[in-house]
Design goal:
It contains 8 helices and no strands. By secondary structure, it is mainly alpha-helical. The longest helix has 25 residues. The protein is globular, with a radius of gyration of 18 Å.
């Protein structure tokens, strides 16, 4: 399978389609995070940290998520990473959507509904990730931290991502975040889901038709 080019491309190239794709992907991502948090069966790594911080601050889940994103962006400075439009939108849209969906969706206590929300949330997260990443308008804060550290250390992206997420889960767990079967399911499923969907969602330059044919 050919390598998929995910390098950021200027917003001036096909701006309407790519902006809509970016915002739709981020809105779906925030929704997926909210679904998994209400399932109560374990959270994805960064949500474990967010929930842990939430328990000590009294802020909303979305607000904590946004604040963590800002802190992560500050870590970009020594790594010489540059944010794009997609980076800023990532911070704002996801934070707003998480709180919006959680406001209408209560915690679930029936196991069937918990499983439905968990599986649906993880699947939707894969769709959302492929959608917003495929718009190629700049990485999210966490994506940029991962690629920046990989570039500076010379380590593989897989190793750096694993190290970051283990650290984040450990910190979140110590703060009181929920670790469970959902954390494991997310870790196992999100990579293959995103990889499978990226060929369908990634924006590509339109090739100009050749003359004389």
């Amino acid at each position: 399978m050919a390598q998929i080019d995910l390098r950021p491309v200027r917003i001036s190239r096909d701006p309407v389609r790519r902006s809509v794709q970016l915002l739709a992907g981020l809105a779906l991502y925030g929704t997926s995070v909210a679904l998994v948090t209400r399932a109560g069966l374990g959270l994805e790594p960064w949500s474990v940290l967010a929930e842990g911080v939430l328990k000590h601050t009294g802020l909303t889940f979305g607000t904590v998520t946004g604040l963590i994103s800002v802190v992560v962006l500050l870590l970009w400075i020594p790594l010489r990473q540059r944010p794009g439009i997609g980076t800023i939108a990532n911070v704002v849209v996801i934070s707003v959507m998480v709180d919006l969906v959680r406001a209408f969706l209560p915690d679930q206590h029936d196991l069937v509904w918990q499983i439905v929300l968990l599986v649906g949330g993880v699947a939707l997260n894969g769709v959302a990730t492929a959608t917003y990443v495929g718009a190629r308008l700049g990485p999210g804060p966490r994506d940029g931290l991962m690629t920046g550290l990989a570039g500076r250390t010379g380590r593989s992206v897989r190793l750096v991502r694993t190290a970051i997420e283990v650290t984040v889960v450990a910190a979140g767990f110590l703060l009181g975040g929920t670790v469970g079967i959902g954390t494991v399911l997310y870790a196992l499923a999100i990579g293959p889901l995103t990889q499978a969907l990226l060929p369908l969602t990634t924006w590509r330059e339109q090739q100009q038709p050749q003359e004389g044919h």
